[in-house]
Amino acid sequence: MRHKIKGKKLNRDSKHRKALFKNLINALVMHEEIQTTESKAKAIKGLTDKIISRGKKGTLHARRTIAAFLQDKNAVNKIVDVLGPRFKDRVSGFTRIIRLGERRGDDAMLVKMELVEKAQIVEQPVKKGEGKKEKQSKDRKETDNKDKKDEKSGS
């Protein structure tokens, strides 16, 4: 029986497991979404929430404690400077897990783990001449496709 035993071993020793968690959290922070197995995603969900909530404080001590665990300056800076202000109104629950289906080789349940609030994507303005050309080429493709469908149905 597993009385008072917290966490999953994931068939790894402690050093390998800790390195796996660091790498998964680094990838999640930098890319804001990762694809992994359900058991790994559930294992790092709590750790990720703790790290992001620590980054919300924005102090030097918080930055150093995050850096002691992650050991990636870019990830630490992104947590404190970008994710902290983004999640300032949220108390917890910074990640979500979406099931994708089973992996073909071993039937492991694959999931997409992502941050709840995504980055705002700023669209760059289109120059005057470029927008018309793209629209005209799309219109031509659509009319060509319609003509081909009409030929097939008419035959």
Automatic annotation (TrEMBL):
Pfam families: Ribosomal_L17 (PF01196). One of its GO terms (biological process) is translation. Residues 122-155 are annotated as: Disordered. It comes from the Bacteria. GO terms for molecular function: structural constituent of ribosome. Residues 125-155 have a biased composition (Basic and acidic residues). InterPro entries: Ribosomal_bL17 (IPR000456), Ribosomal_bL17_sf (IPR036373). One of its GO terms (cellular component) is cytosolic large ribosomal subunit. Keywords: Ribonucleoprotein, Ribosomal protein. Belongs to the bacterial ribosomal protein bL17 family. Part of the 50S ribosomal subunit. Contacts protein L32. HAMAP family: Ribosomal_bL17. This is Large ribosomal subunit protein bL17. It comes from Candidatus Chisholmbacteria bacterium RIFCSPHIGHO2_01_FULL_49_18. The lineage of its organism: Bacteria, Candidatus Chisholmiibacteriota. The gene is rplQ.
